[in-house]
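Sample A.
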Amino acid sequence: MLYTPLSETDIFPISEEEFSNRQCVTYQGKSLYVEQLNDGSYQLLQLLSTDPQDFLDSTYTPGTILR
């Protein structure tokens, strides 16, 4: 049993290529877990923060495209 905030597919990805497109980045001072898309932009998968106020900001909603 794993106790982690990550989903099962993040820990055990379907393919190595899918996992290689994911990374942790800093965007506007916040740590984010993102996936790089084919056009070079990033899709937000998860906000990594200990500040509850960060989760109320719609800028960091999962699925948001970051350019």
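Sample B.
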Amino acid sequence: MTRSVLLVDDDAAIREALGQTLELADLTCIAAGSFVVAADHISREFDGVVISDIRMPGRDGFHLLAHVRSIDPDLPVILLTGEGDIPMAVKAMGEGAFDFLEKPCAAKELLAVVERAIKTRALVLENRQLRQLVESGDPAARMLFGNSELAQGLRGQVRRVAQTGGEVLVTGAQGTGISKVAEVIHLSSLRSKRPFLKRAAHDLDPTALADAFAQGEGGSLFIDEIAVLPAQSQLALAEALDGAPATRLIAGSTRDLAIEMEEGRFNADLYYRITVMPVRIPSLSERPRDIPVLFRHYVAQAAEQSGQRAPEVTPQIDAALMAREWSGNARALMSEAMRFVIGMSETPDVDESVGLVAQLAQIEQSLIEGALRRAQGQASDAARALKLPRKTFYDKCARYAIKPEDFRP
């Protein structure tokens, strides 16, 4: 069971006294005098609890609490309050603090609350580990990465359509991984032990189409870019689906099939047959917070393939990646990961020769510019994406001389 405590207080004497109390109780104390120092230790994997003073210069205990909850809502934060701060502490409890103690607090009282928080944290981490073991047998969890709501929604949608027996249409922009999602649907279905065939639509004539259905009997046939399937093959496919073939069809398209049908390039019967269960893959511009997760996976993959050690991906690199446009989506990010591993990356990093405040400013500026680029210069949309009040967003734009109109098409 975890025995770590991150202790945050700007008063060195209090840090030392509380640290001794914790260490005498066989707890590992990590002391920090400010939010900036403490933030380096906070992650979803942190196997401990946090104790923080409420009143600190600069970013106080409320800011720390909000930061912790944005990273891991299940990480217990115990707040220390001075005389007259009880109303503030009660407010903090409403915002998710685990508990609060009034300073000076008796060692017995402190340790009782800490032990309770540690047991809670240990249970959370244990449950996560068990959940991970269960999900390791889940192709959607194992092969589709990202922590955003859109990524979670994609995995849920894949699991749902996989359990049905009907045709599936997988759509998305270039490079989003349509073929991969199609394979995950197959692997998540009752047909997973049977063949999974991939065929390009552009050269699939009726005879080749019939052969593919025969070869994939009991399994799944993925037809990539079905919008360019020859007209005769579209007709043959619609007729084959009417006959309830033993092979399941999974179609993929980067084009809007509704437009293709309306303009007479796609068979209407086939369109209505394959669009009953659509799965849309969101682009990276819609879920920028998934970019660091995907990039680290691709870096590890590229390092293994090239026989090299994976270089460190710093928070500064994360920020630079999130600020960039990825018109090629996952495919482009994968290529960048390979360049990063072999030392040819084009991803700009912040200037580490300057101080911490200046580095953070560079990161903040790149994130604002990235949000405006994705929002095509619409400041309100960019502010919403960054979860900032509009006034705060405009103040920051003014600070960095950023003009939203410069990002409009």
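B remarks: DSSP finds 18 helices and ten strands in the chain. The two ends are 54 Å apart (CA to CA).
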